[in-house]
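U., I forgot to send this yesterday:
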Amino acid sequence: MKKIWIIALKELRSFFDSLTAYILIVVFLGLSGFFTWLFGSDIFLVGQASLQSFFSVAYWTLFFFTPALTMKMLAEENKSGTIELLLTKAVTDWDVILGKFLACLMLIGIALLLTLPYYLSVWALGPIDHGAVWCGYLGLILMSMAYISIGLFASSITNNQIVSFLLSLFIGVFFLIIFNVLSSDFTGLIGEILSYLSLSTHFDSISRGVVDSKDVIFFLSITLFGLILAESSLSKRNIVE
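Result:
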């Protein structure tokens, strides 16, 4: 665990050293703040003390935010050859994968923490369902975990950051949109399976304040599966090389 934590802190520092963290956080806060408070279905238009507008915006913002974070995590290391140097320092493939996963999750956690003034501001406007708010944040964290694992897998199978970014988005589109659309075209068991595979089905449930074990298991399963694929891809590259 110590090695994972060291790698995570190193990666987190690299985000801030390269201005990546500042740019992505500013963009995230800018977009979420604009659409939450000023445009479209904003809080004032809704007319009630709720952060559903923010969660709806963050739901889409993180879809692009996360692949931008993960695209260089392994792709750049594979391209420059530093991944081999890293793996000679008595760390396992899992140490590397989990360390980079934790770094991305911490940065997203920092971005979400910076949105807490939204929560406090809405609370000041009137009675708010605190349970629904915290469940909404939980949903965003679980969703981010799934996106990060997908992004790490995409980054592990290519040396090109742009390819990694696009591949991560492509995979994410299936869970975010396509499975949800297809589920409405099918009935019976197939429709239920497609609906279960839809990320929006589980996120919507949690963001409404209902924490169901099947929703949590879904996100954790996607996360674990993505990390296993990333580790497997990294291991195969090391064997070939």
